[in-house]
C-alpha cells in the first residue's frame, strides 16, 4: 500500500471527476437536442443510468471486466469489488482504478439514451441500463482492457473509441431501430419531418462540458501522471475536436447552404470520439486528420441514418459515437506513428484494429438485440402514442420541465 | 359587400392543426390564424402530483383557429372541422361563428370579399 | 349606446407594433390589446433545413392588434393601419372589422362609448 | 337559435383568473378560454432601468378571458366580473360584448344554445 | 516555507476550485426549482452570499474559526487573516487553507437562499449572509475543526455533514419558518397548492455540478494528497450519491405513483450530504447504506415539512442539508469501520455524534432565530405582497430574467 | 525529456483544461446577455473562434509568439509548432506549454464576439477570428511573454490583463464601433432603447464558469506547481472578484435605484480581469482594492460607452476586458508589493505599466481597424437589416435555438 504514487492517483481521480462531469454534458446535449416535453425524462434517464450503473458496476461489472481472465473472455466474478486485483499491477489504489472505470462504464451506458429519446418507457430504459453496465460493457471491456483476447492481439483502443463509444453507439443503433421512429418523424409518403431540439444553448453547453471532460477521459487513461504523454494527449485531443468542428461546419455549409449549428456541435464531438483510440500514438497532424475524417463522417452518417435508413436518432448518437468511434479506431492503423500504415508499419495493425471494431460491433448488436427484444416482448419498450404526444415528462414522471413558459403548443404536439 | 362574411373560431386539441389545415385548404379556405389558449369546459385536468403534493390543473392547453370566410359556406367549414376533429371524447372542443362587418387586405387595400381571395 | 361600436382587428408582421401604436395614438386611439399568433395566407414559410432535412414551415409568426373604437371612425383606423403597415409585399396582413354589442370599464362600471374614453 | 348568444371578453390583470373562474362557475358559466395578451390603455408601464438605461415599457401583460353564453344573462356575467376584478385602480381592465351567430360542439354536433350546455 | 508539499497544496487548491464551482450548482438548482420571475434574484443572492462571505470570512471569520482556541469555544480574533496560524501545523501554505475554508463557509451560507427563495428582501438576505459568514459559521466550525470542544470530544464530521450542511439547513429552517410560506402555497382550508419550478434542466445541471464539486468537497478535506484516502473518498462519495438517487426515485415511485424527477435529484444530493461526515471511515457498503438512508429520509422529510409542518421550502434545502446532514453524521456512529456500532465499537462514538449534531442544531437555531427576528423587526425580512406577486426580479432588481419568452402569465401569478 | 516535472505538467494541463472551460463561460454569458433569436449564432461564434484559433495558433501563431525573438518584435516562424523551443527553458513538455498558450489565445479571440453580437456576418467573424489568432495576438504576446521588448522593459502582466483581456477588449471596441449599434438601440432623437438579454440564469452560469476557470487562468500562469505562489494567486483572484461584484452592485444600487443583476455579474468579471496582471505580486488587501477599483470602473465604463459614446456593446465586453484590463495592469504599478508606488517603489514600474498598456492598445486599435475595415469593404461586416430583424439564427444558420417556446414576438423584433 505504501508504494502508491500520490501524484498518479491524484491525476486519475481528477480525471475520474472530469469524466463524471461528462454526464452533465450528455444530459444537456440530449435534453437540448430533443423536445421540451421530454426534457425531464432525459435528465432522469441520464441520472439513473449513472447511478444504477455505478452501483451494479461496483457490485458485479468491475470483476467481470478486471477479474483474473478466463480464457481471455471474461473476468472472474467477485462481488462488491472486494478482491485485491493485484494481477493488474496498478501504481494507484484499487479504489482509484474502480472509480475511474465506473465513470467510463457510465459513459458507455448513457450514450444510448439520446438515440432512444422521446419514446422509450422509463422502466425499460432502467432495465437496459442495468444489463449493459452489469454485463455487456464489462465483458467487452475485458476483451480489450482487462487482459482479454483483443488486448492480447495488440488491438489499440487507448481511451475507448471502440469499447466505450462504439459499443454505446451500436447499442443506441439497435435500440433506436427496434423502437422505431418518433411519431410524425417520417410521413407515410416517405417525407421527413424534422423535429427540432428545444434548447440549443443548453446543447452547446453540454458539448463544451463534454470537451472539458474529455481531457480527463483521454488524459486519465494513461493511469499515471506522465508529463510527456499527458501533454501529448491534451494536444491531440484538442486538435482533433477542433478539426472535427471545422470540418462538419464546412460540409454542412456546402451541402445545406448554411453552417449548421447542431451539426457543427456534433462535429466537435465526432472529432473527440475519433481521436480517443489513438490519442497517445498519433502525431498532432495525425490527430487533425483524424478529426477531419470524423467531422466529415459524422455529417454523412447522420444523413445516411436519418434520410436513407430512416433510423430516428434525435441527437445523432449513433453517428457520433458508433460510427466515428469505429472510424477513429480504424484510423489508428493508419496514423499510428508506430505501426501505422502511413508510417510504414504495414497493414498488420490496421487489420487488428478492423478485427476489434468488428468484434465489438458483433458482440454489441447480438447482445443488445436480444436485450431490447426481450424487454419489448415482456414489459414493452415503447410508450403508447398518447404518452408520446403529451410527452414523457407528463405521462412518465408527472412533471413539466418549464412550468412558467408558454409552449409553442402548435409545433410541440404535431403528430 | 352584399355577401355576408363570418368568422369561424374553432377551439380544439393541440396537435390537430395540421390535419385541420389540410382539410380546410381542400375546401378552398387558405387563410387562418392560430393562437395558443388555455381552456376549461366539460373536460377537466387530470389529477397530478408535484413533489408529493396532489393537485388538479384547472385549465387545459388548446388551440384556437380563426378563419374568416365568405364564399365558402360556414356549414362546409363546420362539417370539415367536425369530421377532422371529432374523437367523440370530451375535450374535442367547440366552434363559434361570429358576424364580420368588413375585411381589408393591407397590401393593396382590397376590401370585403375580394380581400379574402388568396391569389397573390 | 346610440353610436355603433366596432372592433378592428389587425393581423400583421411582428416588429411593426411600435409604429402602428404611435400612429393610432395620434388618431386618438389609446387602448389596444396585442396577441402573438401564427398565421397562414398568401404568404408561405420559406424552405429551411434542420440537420440536413429540408422542410417548409406552414405557419408564420404574426401579431394581432385589437382595438375597440366608436368615436374614432373605423375608416380612419383602417387608413392609418394601411399607411403604416403597407410594404406592398405579400404578408402585410389583413384587417377584420367586427360589430361590438357593448363595452364596460371594470374600474368604475362605465358602459358603452364612455367606457372607451381613456381619460383616467 | 331563438335565444341570442353573446361572447363576453374580459381583459384584466394576470393573477385574477382563479377568482374570476370560481365566481363565474357559481353563476353556471363553466366554459371559458383564456389567452395571454399585452395591452395598453389608461394604465402605463412603470419606468424601469436596464443596465443603467431608463425606459418605460409600452405594453403591459394582461389576460383575456372569453366566455360564450346564452342562458346566463350577459349582465350577470358583467356584474360578477366587476365584483371580482374591481380594485378601483387604473388597469382593472375592460369587458367587451360581441354578438355570436352560432355555436357547435365538435364532439357530438350539438348546435346553438344546447352546445353551450356543459353536462357531458 | 520551504517545507510545504506542492502536491498537497495543488490538491487542496483544486478541491477549493471544485467547491467554488458548487456555487454555480447551488445557483442553478435553486433557480431551476423556483419560478422564472425570481430567477435573477436567486442568482444575485447566490453571487452575493459568496462574495460578501469571501470578504468577511477573510477579514474576520477565518480567525474566529482557526485562531488559537479560547477554551475550545472560539478562535482568537485576527483581522484580514494576517496571523501565522502555525499552531495548525499545516503542510500547505496558510493561504491555501484559507481559500479552501472560504469556499466551505460560502457553501454553508448559500444553502439558506433556496429555502427562503421568492419572498425575502434582498437587503435582509445580504445582512443575514454577512452575519452567518462572519460569526455563526466560524464559531461552530471552531468547535469541530478549529480545535474546539466538539473536536476534542472525538466528534467525527470529516467534510462537514454537520458543520456545513446541517448548520446551513437549520438556518434555512429558521428562516423559512419565520418568513412564512409563499403567497398561495397553502389555502385557508389547509389545502396545498404546488408552485412548480421553472427550469428542470437547469436544476438538474446544478445537481450534476454539485456532485462534481463534491469530489473536491469531500476529497479535499483530507488536506493532503494521500493516495489511499483520496481514492476511498471518491468511491464512498459516489456510491452514497448513487444510492440516494435510486432510493429517492423508488420511494417517490411507490408513494406518488411515478418516479419524480425533482425528488430523485434531491435524493442524489441527500446521499452526498449524508456521506460527507463519514466518507473517510465507512466502507463502500456502509456508504451505500448511508446513501439509501439519506435517500429515504429526504423524501419523508420533504413530505413532513411541506405537508405536515407547512414550512415552505421551495427547493428542499432543509430536508437535504439539515435533516440528511444530521442523519449522515449520526450514521457515522453506526457505520464507522473503527468505532461504529455495527463494527463492534459500541455506542460511544454514536453518543458523541448525537451530541455534536444536537449542539450545532441548538447553536444554529438560537443564533439564527435572533438574527432573523432582529432583521424582521428592523428592516423587515419579507417583501410586500405586490412585490411577491410581480416577482423579485422586477421589484427588487428591476429586471426580468427571460425577456424574450412569453410567460405562462396565468399560472405565474396565481395567488 | 527525462527532466520534466510531472507535477508542474499536471498543474499546467489542468489549468489549460480550466481555461478551455472558460469558453463555455463566454458562450453562456454572451448568449444569455443577448437576444434569443441570435443565441445559436453566438454559440457558433464561440465554438468556431476556439476551433479555428486552436488550429491556426498551432500551425502558425505559437511560433510567432514563442519562436526565437527577432529584435524583440516577433518570434521566428515555424509551422505546426514542430520546433524544439529549448530557448524557453521550460520544466514542462513543449506540448503542455502549447496547449496552455492555445487556450489563452482563444480567450483573447472570443472576447470580441460579445461586443459584436447580433449583427455581424458569420463569415466575416470567422475571418477576423482567424487573423487575430494567427497574427495579432501572437505578436502582442511575443512582446510581453515571448521574450519581446515589453517583457524586457520589466512590464508585469502576469496572466494577461493586458495581453489577453485588454487586447480582446480593444479589438471588441474597434469592431463594435465600426459595425455600429444594433437596429433600434439608439433613436434618432438620441434616445436609448435597452435591448434585454434573454437568459439571465444562463448568463450567471457563464460567470460562475468563468470564475472557476480563472483559477486555472491565473494559477496556471505560474507554469509550475509552486505551493506558495499558487495559494497566493487563488486568494488574490478570489478576493478581487468578490470585491468587484460587491462594488458594482453598490454602485448600480446607488446610481440606478436597484442592485442590478447583470451589472453585478459584470463586476465580478471586472474584478477577475483587473487582478489578472498582478495576482502574483499584490497582497490580499491590494487585490481587494484592485477588485473595488475594477468594480467601480466597469459600471462607469458601461455608462460612458453605452450612453455617451453610443458604442453598442451588448455584453459589456469592452468595459470588462478592455478598460478593466488596462486599469488592472496599471494598478500593478501602484499595488505591487515590490516596486509599487504605495510600497515605496516609486513611479518606475507604474510608467512601464502605462507604456505597456498604451503599446498594446495602439497595436490592437491599428491592426484591428485595418482588419475590420478590410473585411467591411470586401465581404462586408454586417448583416442586412432584414437578417438582423429576423435574427442571425434564422438567416445565418437556418435554425432557431428555442423551437418549443413561444417568443415574445412583440418585443423581440421591435426596430
Ligand atoms: N362557453 C364557452 N366559452 C368559451 N370557450 C369555451 C366555452 N366552452 C368551451 N370552451 C372552450 O372549448 C374547449 C373545449 O371544451 P370542452 O367543453 O372541454 O369540450 P367538449 O365540448 O368536447 O366537451 C374548452 O377548453 C374551452 O377552451
Ligand atoms: N381568411 C383569413 N382568416 C383569418 N386570418 C387570415 C385570413 N387570411 C389571412 N389571415 C391572417 O393574415 C395573415 C397575413 O395574410 P397573408 O394572406 O399571408 O398576407 P397578405 O394579405 O399580405 O397577402 C396570415 O398569416 C393570417 O394570420
Ligand atoms: N379600446 C380598447 N380596445 C382594445 N383593448 C383595450 C381597449 N382599451 C383597453 N383595452 C385593454 O384593456 C386593458 C386595460 O385597460 P386600461 O385602460 O389600462 O385600464 P382601465 O380600464 O382599468 O383604466 C389594456 O391594457 C388593453 O389590453
From TrEMBL, chains A, E, F:
Pfam families from the UniProt entry:
Ammonium_transp (PF00909)
Q: Where is the signal peptide?
A: none
Could you tell me the membrane topology recorded for this protein? Multi-pass membrane protein
Please report the name of this protein according to its UniProt entry.
Ammonium transporter
Q: TM spans, by residue?
A: 12-34, 55-77, 97-118, 125-146, 158-179, 200-217, 229-249, 261-279, 285-305, 317-337, 349-372
* Keyword match Membrane: yes
A biological process (GO) annotation for this entry? ammonium homeostasis
InterPro entries reported in the protein's UniProt record: Ammonium/urea_transptr (IPR029020), Ammonium_transpt (IPR001905), Ammonium_transpt_CS (IPR018047), NH4_transpt_AmtB-like_dom (IPR024041)
Record's Gene Ontology CC terms? plasma membrane
Q: Give the subcellular location.
A: Cell membrane; Membrane
Per the database record, which ranges form the Ammonium transporter AmtB-like domain? Answer: 10-402
Q: Name one GO molecular function term.
A: ammonium channel activity
Work out whether the entry's keyword set contains Transmembrane helix. Answer: yes
From TrEMBL, chains B, C, D:
This protein's GO cellular component annotations are:
cytosol
Query: Which biological process terms from the Gene Ontology are attached to this UniProt entry?
Result: regulation of nitrogen utilization
Q: Name one GO molecular function term.
A: enzyme regulator activity
Which family does the similarity line name? Answer: Belongs to the P(II) protein family.
The organism is: Anoxynatronum buryatiense
Please report the name of this protein according to its UniProt entry. Nitrogen regulatory protein P-II family
O-UMP-tyrosine: which positions carry it?
55
Q: Which controlled-vocabulary keywords does the entry list?
A: Phosphoprotein
Q: Which residues form the signal peptide?
A: none
* SMART domains (alphabetical): P-II (SM00938)
Amino acid at each position: 500500500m505504501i508504494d502508491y504514487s500520490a501524484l498518479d492517483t491524484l491525476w486519475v481521480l481528477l480525471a475520474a471527476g472530469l469524466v463524471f462531469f461528462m454526464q452533465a454534458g450528455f444530459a444537456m446535449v440530449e435534453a437540448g437536442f430533443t423536445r421540451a416535453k421530454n426534457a425531464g425524462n432525459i435528465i432522469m434517464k441520464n441520472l439513473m443510468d449513472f447511478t444504477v450503473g455505478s452501483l451494479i458496476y461496483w457490485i458485479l461489472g468491475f470483476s467481470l471486466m478486471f477479474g483474473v481472465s478466463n480464457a481471455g473472455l471474461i473476468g472472474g466474478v467477485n462481488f462488491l469489488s472486494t478482491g485485491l486485483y493485484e494481477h493488474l499491477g496498478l501504481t494507484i489504489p484499487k479504489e482509484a482504478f474502480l472509480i475511474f472505470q465506473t465513470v467510463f462504464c457510465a459513459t458507455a451506458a448513457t450514450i444510448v439514451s439520446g438515440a432512444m429519446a422521446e419514446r422509450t418507457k422509463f422502466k425499460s430504459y432502467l432495465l437496459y441500463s442495468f444489463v449493459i453496465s452489469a454485463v455487456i460493457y464489462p465483458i467487452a471491456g475485458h476483451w480489450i482492457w482487462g487482459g482479454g483476447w483483443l488486448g492480447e492481439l495488440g488491438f489499440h483502443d487507448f481511451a475507448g473509441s471502440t469499447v466505450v463509444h462504439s459499443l454505446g453507439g451500436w447499442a443506441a443503433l439497435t435500440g433506436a431501430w427496434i423502437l422505431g421512429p418518433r411519431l410524425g418523424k417520417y410521413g407515410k409518403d416517405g417525407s421527413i419531418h424534422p423535429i427540432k431540439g428545444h434548447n440549443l444553448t443548453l446543447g452547446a453547453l453540454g458539448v463544451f462540458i463534454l470537451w472539458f471532460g474529455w481531457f480527463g477521459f483521454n488524459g486519465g487513461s494513461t493511469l499515471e501522471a506522465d508529463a510527456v504523454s499527458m501533454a501529448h494527449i491534451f494536444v491531440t485531443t484538442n486538435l482533433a475536436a477542433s478539426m472535427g468542428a471545422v470540418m462538419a461546419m464546412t460540409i454542412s455549409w456546402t451541402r445545406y447552404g448554411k453552417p449548421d449549428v447542431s451539426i457543427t456541435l456534433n462535429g466537435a464531438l465526432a472529432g473527440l470520439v475519433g481521436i480517443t483510440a489513438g490519442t497517445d500514438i498519433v502525431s498532432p497532424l495525425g490527430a487533425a486528420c483524424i478529426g477531419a475524417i470524423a467531422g466529415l463522417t459524422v455529417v454523412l452518417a447522420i444523413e445516411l441514418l436519418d434520410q436513407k435508413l430512416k433510423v430516428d436518432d434525435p441527437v445523432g448518437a449513433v453517428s457520433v459515437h458508433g460510427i466515428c468511434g469505429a472510424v477513429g479506431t480504424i484510423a489508428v492503423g493508419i496514423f499510428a506513428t508506430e505501426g501505422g500504415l502511413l508510417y510504414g508499419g504495414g497493414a498488420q495493425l490496421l487489420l487488428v484494429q478492423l478485427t476489434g471494431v468488428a468484434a465489438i460491433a458483433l458482440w454489441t448488436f447480438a447482445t443488445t438485440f436480444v436485450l431490447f427484444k426481450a424487454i419489448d416482448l415482456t414489459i414493452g419498450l415503447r410508450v403508447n402514442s398518447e404518452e408520446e404526444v403529451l410527452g414523457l415528462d407528463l405521462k412518465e414522471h408527472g412533471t413539466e420541465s418549464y412550468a412558467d413558459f408558454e409552449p409553442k403548443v402548435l409545433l410541440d404536439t404535431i403528430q | 359587400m352584399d355577401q355576408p362574411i363570418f368568422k369561424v373560431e374553432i377551439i380544439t386539441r393541440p396537435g390537430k392543426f395540421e390535419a385541420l389545415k389540410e382539410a380546410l385548404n381542400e375546401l378552398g379556405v387558405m387563410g387562418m390564424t392560430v393562437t395558443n389558449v388555455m381552456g376549461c369546459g366539460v373536460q377537466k385536468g387530470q389529477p397530478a402530483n408535484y413533489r408529493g403534493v396532489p393537485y388538479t390543473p384547472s385549465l387545459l392547453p388548446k388551440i384556437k383557429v380563426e378563419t374568416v370566410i365568405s364564399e365558402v359556406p360556414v356549414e362546409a367549414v363546420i362539417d370539415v372541422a367536425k369530421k377532422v376533429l371529432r374523437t367523440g371524447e370530451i375535450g374535442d372542443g367547440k366552434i363559434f361563428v361570429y358576424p364580420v362587418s368588413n375585411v381589408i387586405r393591407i397590401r393593396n387595400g382590397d376590401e370585403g370579399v375580394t380581400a379574402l381571395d388568396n391569389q397573390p
